[in-house]
Each structure stands twice: as C-alpha cells, then as structure tokens.
Design goal:
alpha+beta; Deoxyribonuclease I, Chain A; seven-stranded mixed beta sheet; globular
C-alpha cells in the first residue's frame, strides 16, 4: 500500500491513493516530559531540587522555558498527517494541574482547546501521569486512577505512579485508555524488575476485566514502561506481542517490537538505545476493513531540534537538565505516536 497522504480538510480526512478511499485520522501520542515541575514548594512531595533556591536553580524563567519547549514539541507531533496534532496525548513526569494548565494554554497550543485528566498519586517524587485530549475528537465518559502495589524490597519507596484509566468516545466510538509510568530501574534492573512486573500485572488484570465485559473492546495502553518491548514485564506479564498476524487470544499488539529489534529507541544510556515509551492496542484495532478506527502506523517523534548535536551525548535526546546543570533542551525521552484511520463513507 502506498503511503501517500493528501490532506483535504481540517478534520484530518486523508486518502490512500492505492484505494481511492478517504479516511479520517486521529493521532494518539505519549510523551515523558522529564521532571515537569512548577516552582512552588509542595510539602507532600520531594520537590526541593526543583525550586528557585534548590540545587537545580529552577526559577520562573527556567520554568517558562520548560513550558515553551514542551509546547513546541507537542504542537508538532503528528501534524504531517493531521494538522490538529494529537487527539490524545498521554503524559508522564508532570507534577500537577498547574503545569498542565500552563502547557495547554501556551500560545503554541491554545487554539486546540485541549483539556486534561489528572489525579495526584502517592509517588514520592510527586510526578504523575495525565491524559491531554482534544474535545474536537474525544469525549470523556469516566476516569479513575488504578493503584499499583509494589512487592517488598523491589524499590526503596513503597509507592509508584497510579495507572490512569479513561473511558471515552473517539469520534463517537467507545474506547478505553490506560496511561502508565512503571517503576524505574534505579536500584538495579534486576532488583526493580518485580516492581514493573507488578505494574504490568495490575494493567493486565484490568484489561482482562474490560475484555470480559466486551471482547471487542478497543483498548489503548501507553506509557513509559521502563522496560523494552521484549522484556518479561511486557512480553509475559502484560502479554503483548509484536506479530500482528500471530497473536494469541486477548494478547495485546505491540507495534514497537520491530522498532526495538532494529535498534530504534526513545532514550539512550551508555551508548545503548532503549524503547521504554510504547503505545499498545487490543486486537479490535487491527481489522482494516472495519467501519471504526483502525491502527495504521506508529512513529518515534524525533526532530533535529530535539537531538543533542555536540559532545559525548551527541545523537541522544536533548534533555532539559544535564545533572544539575540547566541544558535548555526538551526531554530525555523522544515522544511516540500512532496513526489511527477510519473510513469516510
């Protein structure tokens, strides 16, 4: 199938030239925004470093630059396919509603009239997940946080980020979205692996319940999973496979397996790429002959301005801080996104 797109009007109608069939498109994205704090102290969390008098010297000027940089990236994700950009954007490492409000009202994004869903979790760093959505495409029905209990001795902290569940209508079609930020590898990959397995198990059990209620449920699981597509937490505990044509019953489709095996990643460490930022789908998204939205493509969003161009980290994502030094970058992760299409009758 040729991948030639002709943008025809604002609600993202496209045509695939090989079929002369017109489609609506919707972009679903995920972005770890790297320590997106405000500058106000919250005594309930450990945000001391990210204050004007903290070791990061996180002043209002630095914060405003952070908002501008994240808005710059978000404003461009997926716009080569759909000028409206992301209809749904999962976020990680955001502190609170303040940063989300400042982001969606930034001049680069204000015209989209984004809204968001966010709950405070018990994460000791005070960083949460959220879902930003464009009401032109998505209507929220309900939402709730899902608690993840960590196994003893898997992490130094007792708590991690909740999983955010949002039920809604994507252009009138019922879908479920799960936004994740699984426990990090700090303290060692092997020691912390049970914590990510626990998060994967919570997500899998919740998905199983959704599929029990509706075997054709359209589910999107996205997040910074702190594991690669072939790691045990994802391949086994979450039960996600990369072969679209050879999936077991109720197995999730993970389109990032092939990317990872080709050496494509979203973050880099010690000259090795990892692909922690993934978006997966239940099998109801895979039938391209259906009348509803179906999965078409997945991408890592990587523009030249987001890439480190000098020094030992050349080619890495250009992060906002290098240790405690303000680096004036964007994030230590590249965003990911998928393209969904729907036939126009």
């Amino acid at each position: 199938m040729k991948k030639l797109f002709l943008l025809l009007f604002c609600f993202s109608t496209v045509t695939l030239s090989a079929q002369s069939q017109m489609y609506k498109s919707a972009i679903v994205a995920f972005y770890n925004m790297e320590n997106f704090y405000d500058t106000v102290h919250n005594s309930m969390i450990n945000d001391n470093d990210f204050l004007p008098d903290g070791k990061m010297a996180y002043t209002s000027a630095v914060y405003n630059e952070k908002v501008k940089h994240i808005a710059t990236v978000v404003s461009q994700i997926g716009t080569d396919v759909n000028p409206d950009g992301a209809a749904l954007l999962g976020c990680a490492e955001i502190e609170n509603d303040t940063v989300l409000n400042d982001l969606i009202h930034h001049p680069f994004l204000a015209s989209r009239k984004y809204q968001f869903i966010h709950y405070d979790s018990r994460d000791p760093r005070g960083i949460d997940v959220a879902l930003i959505y464009n009401p032109k495409y998505f209507k929220v029905i309900s939402s709730e946080p899902i608690f993840v209990k960590l196994p003893r001795d898997s992490k130094t902290a007792f708590y991690t980020r909740d999983i955010l569940w949002v039920k809604g209508l994507l252009n009138g079609e019922r879908i479920d979205v799960l936004v994740n930020h699984w426990p990090s590898r700090s303290g060692g990959e092997q020691r912390s692996a049970p914590a990510r397995a626990a998060a994967a198990t919570v997500a899998r059990n919740f998905i199983n319940q959704l599929l029990k209620e509706n075997p054709n449920d359209k589910i999107i699981l996205m997040g910074d999973l702190n594991d690669d597509p072939t790691n045990k937490s994802i391949a086994q505990y979450l039960d996600a496979g990369g072969d679209m044509h050879n999936l077991q019953a109720e197995q999730l489709f993970n389109p990032w397996v092939s990317f990872y095996k080709k050496g494509i990643g979203t973050l880099a460490y010690q000259n090795a790429w990892s692909l922690f930022d993934q978006i997966m789908l239940s099998q109801a998204w895979l039938d391209k002959q259906q009348n509803g939205f179906f999965f078409y493509q997945n991408h890592v969003f990587r523009k030249s301005f987001m890439v480190e161009n000098i020094g030992q980290y050349k080619g890495y994502p250009m992060r906002f801080y290098d240790g405690t030094t303000f680096h004036d970058g964007y994030s230590d992760h590249f965003p990911t996104y998928i393209v969904l299409l729907k036939k126009v009758e």
